[in-house]
Design brief:
Number of strands: 8
CATH superfamily of the largest domain: Hypothetical protein, domain 2
Distance between the termini: 58 Å
Oligomer: single chain
CATH topology of the largest domain: Endonuclease III, domain 1
Largest sheet: 5 strands, mixed
Bound molecules: iron/sulfur cluster
Length: 368
């Protein structure tokens, strides 16, 4: 780990100079680049958490168009914010964004916080986002540290500390601050992000044309694939959802997810979480959901293909089964504990009106 040696100043100088040269030669236009309005920078950073630039770009434009300032976002109903966010995933970000907008608009008099610590105090803002806003909006010397920066530093200095150990954060954070250009923190942070995202990529990095290569410890020792070091392999939890798409004339039934589980605040068809989808028969669904039996004229329809949705910690497989109910079905039929909180809406309007998890949007795309 050469960064603890007396050549640190030279190493820092070489790194900054070549990183800036690389950034100048590889411009990466994005709608929020060069933006100085902290509100828009914050919007872009929250959208880009766990989202690729190409995917986040149209969402940023939609949010700016709908909510051009923090008060507009604060005044919006939560359902509208979630609807606009639909398809982007990790909906806690949208709820936090909305809560923080209300806090800024109503408790801070609409004045955006302008220090790292005050930014960090906002709901949904961590060290990375606070550093990004502080540097981009206010040119404050705070280095961003995300997966890209960990990877670049781990390779450049051949750091053996596993990046998923708590101790790594302190070490990498100190190093990132050491490398940061305190006079041009915004340009430096932007260059680091772009470099990590497009040159020093997780697989097949562009070492051949990389200007940092002569001093990159991993590349010089042919060990690029060994960095960053990680010790844990994340086990994803497998879950299986069977959605019951009730068809009652033109109507269907939806409910809002309220528990502290994924997708809180979004809408869905009534759903049964099961141990497996493959051996699930309508008879067993009936026994669990309608122990007293279905109305005599009710008919099960098609079961859809399986839909897969992968989240950071969960691997979800879902199927949709239609249940056709005769018109005029006794309302008592819907007064079941598992249907509590659900409501009837026109099937064809549901997709337009409510925010759904991506999985259900994909089902609608094929079935409306
Ligand atoms: S030489 Fe390769 S591993 Fe080293 S910084 Fe450049 S792209 Fe990353």
């Amino acid at each position: 780990m050469r960064y603890f040696t007396s050549s640190m100043n030279n190493a820092t100088h070489f790194f900054r100079r070549h990183l800036f040269e690389w950034a100048a030669a590889n411009p990466r236009p994005m709608p929020w680049k060069g933006e100085k309005d902290p509100y828009k920078i914050w919007l872009s950073e929250i959208i880009l958490q766990q989202t690729r630039v190409e995917q986040g770009w149209p969402y940023f434009e939609k949010f700016v168009a709908h909510y051009p300032h923090v008060r507009a976002l604060a005044d919006a109903p939560e359902d509208d914010v979630l609807k606009l966010w639909e398809g982007l995933g990790y909906y806690t970000r949208a709820r936090n964004l909305h809560a923080a907008a209300k806090h800024i608009a109503y408790e801070l008099g609409g004045i955006f916080p302008n220090t790292f610590d005050a930014l960090l105090a906002l709901r949904g803002v961590g060290d990375y986002t606070a550093a990004a806003i502080a540097s981009f909006a206010y040119n404050l010397p705070h280095a961003v540290l995300d997966g890209n920066v960990y990877r670049v530093l781990a390779r450049y200095f051949a750091i053996e500390t596993p990046t998923d150990l708590p101790v790594a954060k302190k070490q990498f954070s100190a190093l990132a601050h050491e490398m940061l250009d305190p006079v041009h923190p915004a340009a430096f942070n932007q260059a680091m992000m772009d470099f990590g995202a497009t040159c020093c990529t997780p697989s097949q990095p562009g070492c051949g044309g990389c200007p940092l290569r002569p001093e990159c410890a991993a590349a010089c020792s042919n060990r690029v694939g060994e960095f960053p070091v990680r010790i844990k392999k994340m086990e994803k939890k497998k879950r299986f959802f069977m959605y019951v798409v009730i068809r009652h004339g033109e109507q269907t039934w939806l409910r809002k997810r309220a528990s502290n589980d994924i997708w809180r605040g979004l809408y869905e068809f009534p759903m049964l979480e099961v141990a497996q989808l493959a051996e699930l028969h309508t008879r067993s669904i009936e026994q669990v959901l309608w122990p007293d039996g279905l109305p005599p004229a009710a008919k099960w329809g098609n079961t859809s293909e399986y839909y897969r949705h992968i989240l950071t910690h969960q691997d979800i497989e879902a199927a949709f089964i239609e249940l056709h109910l005769p018109l005029g079905t006794d309302p008592a039929f819907f007064r079941l504990p598992w249907l509590e909180g659900s409501f009837e809406v026109p099937y064809l309007e549901a997709k337009k009106k409510f925010a759904f998890p991506r999985l259900i949007v994909r089902f609608f795309d094929k079935n409306v």
